[in-house]
Design goal:
Layout (H helix, E strand, L loop, with lengths): L3 H8 L5 H47 L2 H7 E8 L5 E3 H7 L7 E15 L2 E14 L2 E15 L4 E10 L11 H5 L3 E4 L5 E7 L2 E6 L5 E5 L4 E3 L7 E6 L5 E7 L2 E2 L2 E3 L2
Parallel strand pairs: 1-6
Antiparallel strand pairs: 1-2, 3-4, 4-5, 5-6, 7-8, 7-15, 8-9, 9-10, 10-11, 11-12, 12-13, 13-14, 13-15
C-alpha cells in the first residue's frame, strides 16, 4: 500500500529537510487524529452498550425478570444497598419479584458517567424512580455506582452500590403557642449552646451565636433545617417536665438541656 508520505514524495521532488520534517509532522498528526477518532468511537460504542444493559436491568426490577439479571451478573457479584446490607448474586436473584397488585413504576438513568480502565468500566448515575402505589405518586432518587468487567464475550456486572439520595419532608403547620414553648437556650457543657428564637410565626436556631437557621416543622415537636435532609431536632420533656432538645442523626440522639 502506498502511504500518504510516499504519495507526497513522488508528487513534488526534490525536498528540503524542512519540507520533509513538515510532512512527517503532518502525517503524525493525521495518524493521531485517526487513532483518537477510533478510540472515541470505541468508547462511545461501549458507553451505549453499557447504558442499554443497565436500563434493561432496571426495567427488569419491576417485572421480577431474573433472566436479564442472570445474563449480566458476574458469579462473584456483590451488592451494597441503601440500608448497608450486602447481597450476593444468588441472594439478589431470589429477592426479585414482580410489583404487587396496585403498584407500578419505572426507573430512568440520569446524569450517567462511565470511566474505562482496561477490561473494567465504572459507571455512576442517578437512578430516577417513579412509583404509583394505588394511585398515589412517589418519586425517589438513588446514587448508583456499578463496576462492569468484560470477559471474552460480554460485559458482566461485578459490583453495585446503591444509596437513596435524601430529601427533606414537607413542612407541616404548627401553632405558634406550641412553637413558643421551645424558645430558649439549650446547652451541652459550658462552651456549647443552642439558642432557639421566634421571628413572626417561625422558629430559628443558632449554635454558639452563629447565623440562625429556620427550624422547619415536620411534626409539632420534630424540626429540620434546609440543606440537612437527614438531621432532625426533637423537643421532648424529661422526667421533670423540662423541655430538652435532642439533635438526631441516623437514630442517634444527643441531649441538650434547657438552661434554667
Amino acid at each position: 500500500m502506498v502511504t500518504i508520505l510516499e504519495q507526497s514524495m513522488h508528487a513534488a521532488p526534490p525536498f528540503s529537510i524542512r519540507t520533509i520534517a513538515f510532512q512527517i509532522a503532518a502525517l503524525v498528526f493525521l495518524l493521531g487524529q485517526c487513532h483518537a477518532q477510533v478510540a472515541s468511537q470505541d468508547t462511545s460504542t461501549q458507553t451505549a452498550e453499557l447504558l442499554a444493559i443497565e436500563q434493561t436491568l432496571l426495567n427488569a426490577v419491576g417485572t421480577g425478570d431474573t433472566l436479564a439479571w442472570k445474563t449480566y451478573l458476574d458469579d462473584s457479584f456483590l451488592l451494597v444497598s441503601e440500608d448497608g446490607s450486602r447481597s450476593t448474586k444468588a441472594e439478589l436473584l431470589s429477592s426479585l419479584h414482580p410489583f404487587p397488585r396496585g403498584y407500578t413504576g419505572r426507573i430512568n438513568i440520569v446524569q450517567p458517567s462511565i470511566v474505562f480502565s482496561g477490561n473494567l468500566a465504572i459507571m455512576h448515575y442517578v437512578a430516577d424512580e417513579y412509583e404509583t402505589v394505588f394511585g398515589q405518586q412517589l418519586h425517589t432518587t438513588y446514587a448508583t455506582m456499578n463496576v462492569y468487567t468484560h470477559d471474552s464475550t460480554q460485559w458482566r456486572l461485578l459490583s453495585s452500590q446503591v444509596f437513596e439520595i435524601p430529601k427533606a419532608p414537607p413542612r407541616v403547620a404548627v401553632s405558634a403557642d406550641v412553637e413558643r414553648a421551645y424558645v430558649g437556650t439549650y446547652e451541652m457543657g459550658d462552651s456549647m449552646t443552642y439558642t432557639v428564637t421566634m421571628n413572626g410565626k417561625a422558629l430559628y436556631g443558632s449554635r454558639n451565636e452563629k447565623a440562625p437557621q429556620e427550624l422547619i416543622p415536620e411534626t409539632d415537636n420534630i424540626f429540620f433545617v434546609t440543606g440537612d435532609a437527614r438531621g432532625r431536632k426533637l423537643f421532648v420533656k424529661d422526667a421533670n417536665g423540662t423541655i430538652q432538645m435532642l439533635p438526631r442523626r441516623n437514630g442517634e440522639d444527643i441531649v441538650w438541656k434547657r438552661r434554667r
